[in-house]
Here is the input.
Amino acid sequence: GGWHRGGGKYGLAGLSVKLGFEGQVEILLANPDRDTGLEKQKVAAARFLFTGMEGDCHGGLTRKSDSRMLKQYKRNTEVRNSRQVSILSAEELAEAAERMGIPAVKPEWVGANMVLRGIPDLTLLPPSTRLQFPSGAMLVVDAENHPCRYPADIIARHHPEQKKGFVSAAMHKRGVVGWVEAEGEIRTGDRVTIWIPPQRIYPHA
Here is the structure.
């Protein structure tokens, strides 16, 4: 049983390499109802379950496909939810704000669930990177979260002159989305261990 010939017996998790530095949880945010138009609110701690972050509207084992998936599915097709959690970098948010010429891009403006500090180029973490927390909770990176008009519109409420600036300023700095592989509580101030999977470039793309 298990994976063989290049995959290793235990798959990507078993082959992952622990990075020599850690990150830290700076902010946690949740919003139970996306239809209210309210920004996410900061919380000191939250349980992360197989369905996602407890108390947040992006939870669920499945979700409806959206405009990002129109090449593969008709809109609103039921699909596995690999976007349970939105994870951003404090340093990258500051860089985006500097590019835009505003004091800050607040994480609640851009739909973040978690802001981490101390992970260089967090948005470039490859798919299947694992983020491990002291409670045993483990989040798996699915993909980069590209900047879009929705957070740009929210930022424009606070900085009208920046109606379109966010999309270009936050390119490759919007963080990543992921899903919960192991349940546990995550608290502000927790250290984060990063496990990077083997890196390969598919030569036929």
Notes: Confidence is low (pLDDT under 50) at residues 1-9. The two ends are 30 Å apart (CA to CA). The longest helix spans residues 90-100. The CA atoms of residues 20 and 194 lie 9 Å apart.
